[in-house]
Specification:
Blueprint lengths: L1 E11 L2 E11 L3 E4 L2 E4 L4 E5 L2 E11 L6 E13 L12 E9 L2 E8 L2 E4 L2 E16 L15 H7 L11 E5 L4 H10 L5 E5 H7 L5 H15 L5 E5 L8 E3 L2 E3 L5 E3 L2 E4 L2 E5 L4 H19 L11 E6 L10 H17 L4 E6 L6 E3 L2 E3 L1 H11 L5 E5 L2 E2 L2 E2 L5 E2 H4 L12 E4 L13 H7 L6 E5 L5 H20 L7 H7 L10 E4 L22 E3 L3 E16 L3 E6 L5 E6 L3 E14 L7 E11 L7 E10 L2 H9 L6 E5 L10 E4 L3 E8 L14 E4 L6 E2 L6 E2 L7 E8 L6 E10 L5 E11 L5 E7 L7 E7 L4 E8 L5 E10 L3 E6 L12 E11 L2 E11 L2
Helix pairs in contact: 2-5, 3-4, 6-10
Length: 846
């Protein structure tokens, strides 16, 4: 569907008229579980226990009666063999007047369905022409981005100087003002006003606390046309929310009126009670923003990764369909975003649950999900059952069990979007949404519901939310922040006030922006077994090339079925500079218009991307046989510490670290997971081998004579003491290597090991060498004779990685060479408050 809007403006004295041609075409329709979906709709209505997508247009108008329209062209499409109990509705309905940000406004709704003689039709295309005559528009109001006639109004508005305007208000109490000031310093591009609740209460002492806050905010909106963001810094005991019945909603602080949750400000809440927690979260925000502009590592594809999680089909109810809808709704989002971002699916339906005393569990899904999250993702969405501390009856994620397992490096933190029952119930409970926000390495913000929500309301909000994300990445000058996406996806429906943003509403979005990066010829075909070269111009960045999507159909005894897709396997994933070179694995399947390349450029403010869709995977039998016969050797496998010191048999590693496994091969490493050709590892003789997901393996070279890539193994996978670590890998021509290394895992206490000096004995000079369990550290070496008299001190030496070497010229503190003999040296290491000390011998012979 394409929506085109053309405005023709005529300004005549104080009375002006404009004609707007609104075209909507190429529409598609889907019906699921009493939900009527149309692509890219931006509103919903509920009737007769069914929910219908509609199109909602917003106008600035002094009187809705001054909106006139004419249908210039319209096409309907019949849906065969479906009869619905559809109430009669006007195709176009003009709503009542309301005031939004000082703008007199009205909605025009397009209802794209009708029924004739028990036949159902949906709107395939329409061309509407609106004519508006008005002379009573307030020139100082602030229109929303979605106003249809905004172009006329903006050209004639007279805003105050922005330097004197407030963009962002933070409301908190006196205890948290210091944390609010820290956030103000982070957003130095915004004009931020910080105010305490006590000051507000003194201004409006006649009102209850929550309504005093609302009165203050409404007055600020009227006085500051540029005001867009509101942060409530504190939980319900610090800043009380406004309740709709028993449901808290910060939407009502800035809503047009108290009867409609239509917020005028992008609002977030950080539900904390003390300065320590508040400062910790705001420091996390600062580090996150810094990493967006100055990345700490080479992995920028995390900004395109979207994890979609859905509940499984298990439920005591014999009717499977309501449970299958979790996966179907997740697939709707998958289809929405797959051309701009990379969707990763973690569907309970794809995993076999295990039975224990507490019921069914999804242990494998939990393990895969946490491992993937810890590698970095831009956003995580969950659809299914849950409560304030658990996702799904099968406990896919559980607060107490899993919160400490999140360990995301380099501030690549996800935005969590969880529209399940009470996941964000912060008032009176310690919810998982709060725990995710407080945890240092699990999330940067959470969009979640404070009470139970229906399946239909959830997916309706989510589709609008992800449409706004698509708009952000596709439109160059869309400068939306998280709060804008969250607010603009709301359209005054009855359930959207359930969604809260826990976090900073002015948080920059992580998603890259679209640009035409590759101007050179793009290959149409990837030949199996052959080298492929892609010229990306004078850029460095990251690329992920995916094979054919996997289409999955599942049938159930009750007659229910489900059909969905996942993204397919990686053919190649890694970093590049100017050129990308790789070999298409022989496990790839021949197909047409099936492969996709996600290309992201680094080192610019928006990390631009250009995705290449519909590549062919081709097969040339004769050429492939010649290539395979030239390569009969498997990959080379090497092991390194996290600071890239090579490990050898019987080497030591420590807890809370990781091992880097580097794999090298001329033809590249097979990532397709086909026919048992996965990268995998195991400890000792364990039968449960761990398969490395292809997205955990990253190429670090693309166009050299050999292809090099690596993945990590966390030390927690090993046992204290000696371990036999086996790693198996295949190249793209399916040659295998099985490598074994013996490693000794020691506890994480701060220490030095393998302490030697070389040479020993020495003639004139020597090097003291050792390995340390934690770095960077400071080293001090004191040399004594056998009588205990100190001869020399070598102090304040920097040890910046696990291996350290300190030079000694063989002289004492007076600058004279020491005599032949045996001496004692004392090694002292310091790392923050941790200290290691020990004595060793050194001998001089000449």
């Amino acid at each position: 569907m394409i929506i085109r809007l053309i405005s023709f403006i005529l300004n005549i004295s104080l009375c002006f008229s404009y004609t707007i041609n609104y075209e909507l075409d190429n529409n598609t329709f889907d019906f699921v579980n009493n939900n009527f979906y149309v692509k890219n709709s931006n509103g919903t209505i509920s009737m007769n226990q069914s929910t219908y997508d509609i199109y909602r247009l917003e106008f600035i108008i002094s009187d809705p009666k001054k909106i006139n329209y004419e249908i210039k062209d319209i096409k309907w499409k019949k849906v065969d063999n479906i009869i619905f109990n559809l109430e009669d509705n006007n195709l176009v309905a003009i709503g009542d007047r309301f005031v939004y940000r000082g703008c007199s406004s009205s909605y025009v709704d397009i209802f794209p369905y009708k029924k004739i003689d028990n036949n159902f039709y949906y709107l395939e295309s329409i061309n509407l022409e609106f004519t508006i005559d008005d002379d009573m528009i307030n020139s100082e109001c602030q229109p929303s981005e979605d106003i249809i006639n905004k172009s006329f109004f903006s050209n004639n508005s007279n805003y105050l100087n922005k330097m004197n305007e407030v963009d962002y208000i933070i409301i908190t109490n006196g205890d948290l003002l210091g944390a609010a000031e820290n956030l103000k310093n982070i957003h130095n591009d915004l004009n931020i006003n910080i105010i305490s609740v006590s000051s507000i209460y003194s201004l409006y002492s006649e009102l209850d606390f929550e309504y005093a806050i609302r009165e203050f905010i409404i007055n600020e909106i009227n006085n500051s046309p540029n005001l867009n963001y509101l942060l409530i810094l504190g939980d319900e005991t610090v800043v009380p929310p406004i309740y709709n019945g028993t449901v808290p909603s910060d939407d009502y602080y800035s809503s047009v009126n108290l009867f409609s949750a239509n917020p005028q400000l992008s609002t977030g809440r950080i539900p904390v009670t003390n300065i320590s927690d508040a400062s910790s979260i705001i420091k996390k925000i600062e580090d996150y923003i810094d990493n967006l502009y100055f990345p700490l590592d080479n992995d920028n594809l995390w900004r395109m990764r979207i994890n979609l999680i859905s509940d499984d089909e298990n439920n005591p109810n014999p009717n499977k369909y309501p449970e299958l809808s979790h996966t179907e709704n997740s697939h709707i989002i998958y289809e929405q975003i797959k051309e701009n971002l990379i969707p990763y699916t973690f569907y309970g339906i794809d995993y076999q649950p295990i039975q224990n005393s507490d019921g069914l569990l999804h242990a494998d899904l939990t393990s895969d999900l946490i491992e993937n999250i810890n590698s970095g993702a831009a956003l995580i969405n969950y659809i299914g059952h849950g409560d304030y501390n658990t996702l799904a009856d099968e406990r896919i994620l559980e607060l107490d069990r899993d919160i400490n397992l999140f360990n995301i490096d380099n501030h690549k933190l996800p935005i969590w979007v969880v529209g399940t029952c009470s996941f964000g119930e912060y008032d009176g409970k310690d919810s998982m949404a709060e725990a995710l926000l407080l945890s240092e390495k699990s999330s940067i913000a959470v969009v979640s519901t404070t009470r139970g929500i229906g399946e239909t309301s959830n997916i309706n909000y989510l589709t609008k939310f992800f449409n706004k994300i698509n708009q952000y990445v596709e439109v160059y000058d869309d400068q939306s922040r998280l709060g804008d996406i969250y607010r603009n996806a709301k359209n005054n429906s009855s359930s959207e006030h359930l969604f809260h943003l826990f976090g900073d509403p002015a948080l920059p979005l992580p998603f890259p922006k679209f640009d035409n990066i590759i101007d050179n010829q793009i290959p149409e075909n990837l030949f199996i077994g052959a080298n492929v070269s892609l010229d990306v111009g004078p850029y460095n960045g990251s690329i992920n090339i995916l094979g054919n999507e996997k289409n999955i159909i599942r049938f159930y005894e009750e007659g229910d079925s489900i059909n969905y897709k996942n993204k397919g396997q990686s053919i190649y994933k890694g970093d590049f500079y100017q050129n990308v070179c790789f070999t298409t694995p022989i496990d790839a399947s021949q197909c047409q218009d099936c492969a996709r390349a996600y290309v992201q450029i680094k080192d610019n403010p928006y990390n631009y991307f250009q995705n290449i869709m519909d590549l062919n995977i081709e097969y040339d039998q004769d050429e492939l046989e010649d290539i395979i016969n030239q390569d009969i050797l498997g990959p080379q496998i090497e092991f390194y510490t996290q600071d890239y010191r090579q490990l050898f048999n019987q080497d030591n590693i420590f807890e809370n670290s990781f091992i880097i496994v580097k794999i090298t091969d001329y033809s590249g490493i097979n990532l397709m997971d086909g026919l048992g050709h996965s990268i995998r590892y195991w400890i000792d003789n364990e039968q449960n081998q761990i398969i490395i997901d292809n997205d955990q393996f990253n190429y670090i070279s693309s166009c050299d004579s050999t292809s090099i890539g690596e993945f990590k193994i966390e030390s927690e996978k090993l046992y204290l003491g000696n371990n036999q670590l086996f790693v198996e890998a295949w190249d793209n021509f399916n040659n295998k290597t099985l490598s074994l290394i013996n490693l000794n895992l020691e506890n994480s206490s701060f220490k030095a090991y393998d302490v030697y000096n070389f040479p020993n004995p020495f003639k004139e000079e020597t090097h003291f060498t050792f390995k340390i369990s934690d770095y960077p550290s400071k080293a001090k070496i004191s040399i004594f004779n056998l009588d205990g008299r100190r001869l020399r001190v070598i102090d304040n030496q920097d040890c910046i990685n696990t291996f350290c070497s300190i030079f000694w010229d063989g002289k004492n503190s007076s600058g004279n060479y020491i005599n032949n003999g045996t001496y004692i040296y004392h090694l002292e290491l310091r790392n923050n408050n941790k200290i290691f000390k020990n004595l060793y011998k050194v001998t001089k012979l000449k």
